């Protein structure tokens, strides 16, 4: 049977097929058939109820010949249930079993598409057992990508799932969550939506039941999460009716895809007791993953947190035929917050197996095999400092074998700066584990840094030293029971500054601030052209758009930058006190842009507000020659917001202000030549003074920056050639000026930089452009009518590895 997308099943009961005494399948009853339902299906309030028979499958019921159920993506199951007053009940939403049919080996399957939700489904009986609040099956169950199980309930076990066969829970692009699922307790009433109100219930996500046709099937639970995905059990998993001859298996971060390929994953599988803190019996049981299985981790991380217990305590197993194991082939075993891992045998299989104990971490076992070595991740001790406890408490009742090398997990996300931390400048001791039973045999071959492959750490950008291990008698009873990793620091400072930390982008901000000031200051001087100075109108209002762009290559080992900015300026000028006094003007503007580091991951957003006073005067020498004197004083304030992201580290952010002054003065002589051309030799003086505030970065590897200053005196000397023509009867003036620009005086900005993380300081220096350059500027002016005119310009300045572009375009009106 095939049903398309967006199907809705609501309020169906007893079964869609009216068969006498049928109390199975509230919505769909199938015997050996295949059911396929499309995406976005919704199953709400379907149920099976009886006081005369067992009730099974609130939505689906499929047995005897073991058909298959396939449901597409984004399915929602809410409020479905089975309820028998006097007989058993199973599968609040689904009941599927192979029913012992050997020829049905490929049937009895449940396949659920990505991202299903199962909320408030339940299985209950008034006087008998009830299993599987959502699913009861001894066949194959597969959740292809993500799933959410919240607040489901079964009276006896399997608050969400009771399984007797194979179950795959995959989190490939979406997470898996079990939370608030429950079994047992006492039902004391119903909520408004009909869901049982349970007192003293015990949290339970999945129950692996070995009695479901155990002659054919063994429960096999597979949990696999891809990197940055998570499978979280806020409720425990359990097992019952185990067969010592056929141990159950729990496979972590390994699965077989649809093409038969075995794939290992790097996500995180979490078992947490956070929701059930307290000493009451039902709360302690809600933190206890009481199961017997051979559990193997193949990658990623297995995290046990908040006082959770993972695996049945070996001391509770009286029949020694029943065994379990916990093996870390590869990946991280992280135990924190008083959590415990229990297994008959515990194995770390080599350097790929990582042990990451937090405060109060426990492993209880009969036999511990660490003879192949392992890797130790001291992350929690690095955070807690020297007051950290005794590390992992490993209680091996029968044997504890040590051997191989202990790897130091120093190649994680912050590997480039791991040993740059100030704490590594001194000797340090880390508590790896404590042999509770005083039973360990053999010893480890030594400690090895994963970053270097040896016990030595030598890095010019970090603190240096040597790793070793030792067994110590921490409790004073005469037996060396505590395994420690020992860091012996060389006691020398870091020899070189990491180029990523140098902070040159911050100091380079003074260059772009100065360029912003020059964008306004230079353009107001270009406004004082011959047409404007000879204009008979006394007042002029203007507005223009500005563009400021810089390309500065890295030079001399100093990081370069690329700057892009745009904005506007407005101004007014007027003749003051007659023609002999020239023209005075005032302008305001704003440029917004950003500078990017050339070599590293850094970006500085800059917002510059500017003001300028300017003056110009034209003095006639003869009918064909005249002198022009002009100058300006420009002030700019830049608000900087810098984000720096060092390799493998979170971003750090800093905010500060720059203040820049630019004084300019120019003298030129214009002579009219044949053909309507004008030649204008000129000389200009440009003095820039900038100041950068001190500031502190926040986050990441934040640094402290001291103040910095920029001083530069430049003398451009050049020639302008221009002419005035007509375009459609309107005066059109154009000019091109080319100049040599030399820096007579220059102090390149530099600032004191300090890293609290590394406890070291240095001088951060801005990039140093060439002292000599060439500048070309083109300006055009079109008189539209007696009062209105438009104008524009482009400037290019090249200084060796530096290239600056400035553009402007605007309109003016004379009065």
TrEMBL record:
It comes from the Bacteria. SMART domains: Autotransporter. Residues 534-815 form the Autotransporter domain. InterPro entries: Autotransporte_beta (IPR005546), Autotransporte_beta_dom_sf (IPR036709), POMP_repeat (IPR003368). Coiled coil: none annotated. PROSITE patterns: AUTOTRANSPORTER. It is found in: Cell envelope; Cell outer membrane; Secreted. Keywords: Cell outer membrane, Membrane, Secreted, Signal. Its main location: other. GO terms for cellular component: cell outer membrane; extracellular region. This is Outer membrane autotransporter barrel domain protein.
